């Protein structure tokens, strides 16, 4: 049994936070003693954390001020391996590991396309972290764990990081028995009592997710009975609702907010759409595949091309191309639902907990059984 630590900002509704919570549970399943530490604390995903995972909250007012407290914790609690996630947390973890003498055991991870993600958060300290991180990645003893080949290549191409400074581990998105599990019941009224086809998308209401393009593509569908539900919270809510009103589809578009069971909603839908402008390894796409529901995705950097095997599993369209997106959605809605269902399930299987956790154990400990 190895003693492992995961370091996060908090357990908010983001994809990285959800995956780290899942990874913590999967590492426990693999026979390890796991602690998940939050620099601040709280978040909706805290409720889903495996009770066997030890939870620590430093309650710092912001991540950058957590270095002294984290250094004290690392010095007092020796772990076989430490894993940090997200760029600004990585920088804090590196500083604390240096102060505590545990740098050799620290592993950091990048969850998104670095060249795109560095422009998203305007916070000054986060911007500083993105400037400093590539230099630190050259200096730390262990390679940066990236969630896809595309994220790893982007980090090498867009920063001073070298090929030997990166490695890859898959996200633990799905339960090992996902094929045998029946989905829960959807909460949305359009999915509970379907009178027409329903398209579903899931993600933060942010420019990265391309929901403006999705609404434009949706408005161009010839079938005026089709409905669109976008589950998620974010700053663009009013803008997207105004766009739907302007395009005359407000009565067929709904933004109901965060959903606690996206699999249930997607499983009941007729098509899932990933309209992102960039990703790391889109967990929502994997979850959608696991339900067997037909999907459409943009060929965004990075992840969808790898997950969908270059378009063999499901259609891939260019980023910000609403015409192509309309055609792809219409094609999926007019195709028998079960066509290529097994291909979608097989593509999702790579991201089962048991498979993905071994890639992390290899990256952190040298071999899955170390």
From TrEMBL:
The record, for InterPro entries, names:
Glyco_trans_4-like_N
GO molecular function terms listed in the Swiss-Prot or TrEMBL record: glycosyltransferase activity
- Gene3D superfamilies membership: Glycogen Phosphorylase B
In its keyword annotation, does this UniProt entry include Glycosyltransferase? Answer: yes
What superkingdom does the record give?
Bacteria
**Boundaries of each Glycosyltransferase subfamily 4-like N-terminal domain copy?**
14-173
Q: Which keywords fit this entry according to its UniProt record?
A: Glycosyltransferase, Transferase
Note the coiled coil stretches, chain numbering: none
**The keyword Kinase appears for this protein:** no
The cross-references to PANTHER family, in alphabetical order and at most eight, read: D-INOSITOL 3-PHOSPHATE GLYCOSYLTRANSFERASE, GLYCOSYLTRANSFERASE
Protein name as annotated: Glycosyl transferase
Protein source organism: Pseudomonas frederiksbergensis
């Amino acid at each position: 049994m190895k003693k492992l630590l995961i370091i996060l900002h908090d357990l908010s509704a983001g994809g990285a936070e959800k995956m780290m919570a899942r990874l913590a549970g999967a590492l426990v399943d693999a026979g390890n003693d796991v602690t998940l530490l939050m620099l601040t604390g709280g978040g909706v995903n805290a409720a889903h954390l495996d009770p066997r995972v030890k939870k620590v909250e430093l309650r710092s007012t912001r991540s950058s001020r957590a270095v002294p407290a984290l250094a004290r914790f690392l010095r007092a609690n020796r772990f076989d391996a430490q894993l940090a996630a997200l760029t600004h947390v990585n920088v804090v973890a590196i500083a604390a590991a240096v102060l505590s003498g545990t740098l050799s055991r620290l592993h950091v991870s990048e969850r998104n396309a670095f060249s795109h993600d560095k422009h998203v958060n305007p916070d000054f300290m986060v911007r500083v972290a993105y400037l400093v991180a590539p230099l630190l990645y050259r200096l730390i003893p262990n390679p940066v764990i990236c969630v896809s080949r595309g994220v790893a290549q982007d980090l090498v191409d867009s920063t001073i990081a070298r090929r030997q400074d990166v490695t890859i581990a898959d996200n633990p998105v799905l339960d090992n028995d996902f094929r045998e599990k029946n989905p829960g019941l959807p909460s949305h009224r359009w999915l509970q009592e379907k009178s027409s086809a329903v398209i579903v998308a899931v993600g933060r209401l942010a420019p990265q997710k391309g929901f403006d393009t999705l609404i434009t593509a949706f408005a161009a569908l010839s079938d005026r009975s089709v409905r669109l539900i976008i589950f998620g919270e974010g700053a663009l809510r009013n803008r997207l609702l105004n766009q739907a009103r302007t395009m005359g589809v407000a009565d067929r578009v709904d933004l109901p907010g965060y959903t606690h069971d996206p699999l249930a909603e997607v499983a009941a839908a007729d098509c899932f759409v990933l309209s992102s402008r960039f990703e790391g390894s889109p967990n929502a796409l994997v979850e959608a595949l696991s339900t067997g529901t037909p999907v459409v995705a943009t060929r965004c950097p990075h992840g969808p091309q790898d997950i969908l095997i270059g378009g063999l599993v499901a259609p891939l369209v260019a980023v910000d191309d609403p015409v192509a997106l309309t055609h792809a959605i219409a094609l999926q809605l007019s195709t028998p639902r079960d066509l290529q269902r097994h291909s979608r399930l097989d593509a999702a299987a790579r991201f089962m907990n048991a498979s993905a956790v071994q890639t992390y154990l290899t990256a952190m400990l040298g071999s899955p059984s170390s």
